[in-house]
């Protein structure tokens, strides 16, 4: 699903109260980290990721890596925090993506 502007705005509003679940630190970006991130998004559909001060990667590098290596979409980039969205594989966990499709 490719997100339009109104859909991204809705997701940003939904993510406002969330705390970051994942972080990028000095270990950097690895396929294992991306697999864990994808697994968490299959359960929640919307999460925040923070880039720590000791990380070698910039926010734009993390964003490019995530989007190029997976089907995860970056909804918002605020400072060193990314808001990520992915449609859940399990139809029972797709409450948020069903709301997004209606917009």
Task: Put the structure in a nutshell.
The protein is of the alpha+beta class and 103 residues long. The protein has 4 helices and 4 strands, in the order H-E-H-E-H-E-E-H. It has a 4-stranded mixed β-sheet with strand order 1-2-4-3, with helices on both faces.
Structure description:
With 103 residues, the chain is of the alpha+beta class. It is 43% helix and 19% strand. The protein has helices spanning 5-15, 31-44, 59-69, 95-102, and strands at residues 22-24, 46-51, 73-78, 81-85. The longest helix has 14 residues, at 31-44. The mean pLDDT is 92.
Could you give me the name of the CATH homologous superfamily?
Answer: YhbY-like
The strand line-up of the biggest sheet is: 1-2-4-3
Sequence stretches where pLDDT stays below 50 over 5 or more residues? none
SSE run: HEHEHEEH
**What's the structural domain tally?**
1
Percentage of residues in strands: 15-25%
Shape by Cα distribution:
globular
Number of helices: 4
Helix share of residues? 40-55%
Structural class: alpha+beta
Intertermini distance? 13 Å
CATH architecture: 2-Layer Sandwich
Mean pLDDT: 92
Gyration radius from CA atoms, angstroms: 13 Å
CATH domain class name: Alpha Beta
Secondary structure tally: strands: 4
The biggest sheet, with number of strands, parallel, antiparallel or mixed sense and barrel status, is: 4 strands, mixed
* CATH topology category name: Translation Initiation Factor IF3
């Amino acid at each position: 699903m490719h997100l339009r502007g109104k859909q991204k705005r809705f997701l940003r509003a939904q993510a406002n109260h969330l705390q970051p679940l994942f972080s990028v630190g000095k270990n950097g970006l690895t396929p294992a980290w991306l697999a864990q991130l994808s697994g968490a998004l299959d359960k929640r559909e919307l999460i925040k990721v923070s880039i720590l001060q000791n990380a070698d990667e910039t926010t734009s590098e993390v964003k490019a890596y995530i989007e190029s290596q997976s089907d995860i979409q970056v909804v918002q980039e605020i400072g060193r925090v990314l808001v990520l969205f992915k449609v859940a594989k399990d139809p029972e966990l797709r409450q948020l993506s069903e709301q997004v499709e209606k917009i």
